[in-house]
Design goal:
By secondary structure, the protein is an alpha/beta fold. Helices cover 52% and strands 13% of the residues. It has two domains: 197 residues, Rossmann fold (3-Layer(aba) Sandwich), CATH 3.40.50.450; 37 residues, no CATH class.
């Protein structure tokens, strides 16, 4: 084969158009392939969850900043040491105030861990897995929840997502059930598709977004009935004045029945358990 002909053949073999479509990552990243990427994110998780016989889940949301007490104490100590170097610096004073508030929430980490121990220890046997804990797979409350399942030798799921500041999955998610998403919408679908309960701890914008997504779907009856439990009434009553929304006429009075408050892990688990006991009796 002459050189010119060989060069042309090499050009053909190295062209992106000659790659198998399933191996062409450049093609998959093209804007016109968005629908395919969305389908892949939906179907990949379905395949893995079915393979592990995940029948139902308990969803736990909460802030990434709500950490275990020793870590919160270390962060507060560091903030106070920095302030001691420049006592009049407003950002450093503010950092101490914020660290103090995070330390005050450390009990939520313990409660999330305890709740997931309760939820996980009796519902995974004979290969089938019910009430499997699912979180966003990251740090804070998510770590505590996955850790609670890990404590009792149970599987748990982590639905991580690509962010500008990359978020590492926590170490307690079952490795075969840890997933990485690009699309928030598909991730939200997987949070709720198999859900039998939702427990929401204090958190920021992401937690609020996920909470209101679930409340809207329940209000409009676009998903299965589930108990939605807000952990820590003092926090939630300051963040969201649900009664004000009712009084203003923008939500119905009965919408307040879509959620409940809990103050302990046992109380939260009891609310979810009794909800499904009542559903079973109704049928």
């Amino acid at each position: 084969m002459d050189r010119t002909k060989q060069e042309r053949l090499d050009a053909i073999l190295s062209s992106p158009s000659y790659r198998l479509a399933e191996e062409d990552t450049q093609l998959l990243r093209h804007a016109d392939m968005r629908s395919v990427r969305i389908q892949l994110e939906l179907q990949k998780v379905e395949l893995y969850l079915n393979r592990h016989q995940i029948q139902s889940t308990i969803v736990v949301f909460g802030g990434t900043q709500v950490v275990e007490r020793p870590e919160a104490e270390r962060k507060l100590l560091k903030a106070r040491q920095a302030l001691a170097e420049m006592p009049e610096d407003p950002p450093r004073r503010r950092a101490v105030q914020r660290a103090e508030r995070i330390l005050a929430k450390a009990d939520y980490y313990d409660a999330a861990r305890e709740f997931c121990q309760l939820a996980s220890q009796t519902c995974q046997d004979e290969g089938k897995c019910d009430y499997v804990v699912v979180t966003g797979g990251g740090p804070g409350i998510m770590e505590a929840a996955n850790r609670g399942a890990f404590d009792v030798g149970a599987k748990s799921i982590g639905l991580n997502i690509t962010l500008p500041e990359e978020q590492q999955p926590n170490a307690y998610v079952t490795p075969e059930l840890c997933f990485l998403f690009h699309y928030f919408a598909i991730r939200k679908m997987h949070f709720l598709m198999r859900a039998k309960g939702l427990l929401v701890f204090p958190g920021g914008f992401g937690t609020l977004d996920e909470l209101f997504d679930a409340l809207t779907l329940r209000q409009t009856q676009r998903m299965q009935p589930i108990p939605i439990v807000l952990f820590g009434q003092d926090f939630w009553s300051r963040v969201i004045d649900f009664q004000f929304l009712c009084d203003e006429g923008v939500i119905a009075d009965q919408d307040l029945e879509l959620f409940h408050y809990a103050e302990t892990a046992a109380e939260a688990w009891d609310l979810i358990s009794r909800f499904h006991e009542q559903v079973s009796e109704d049928f």
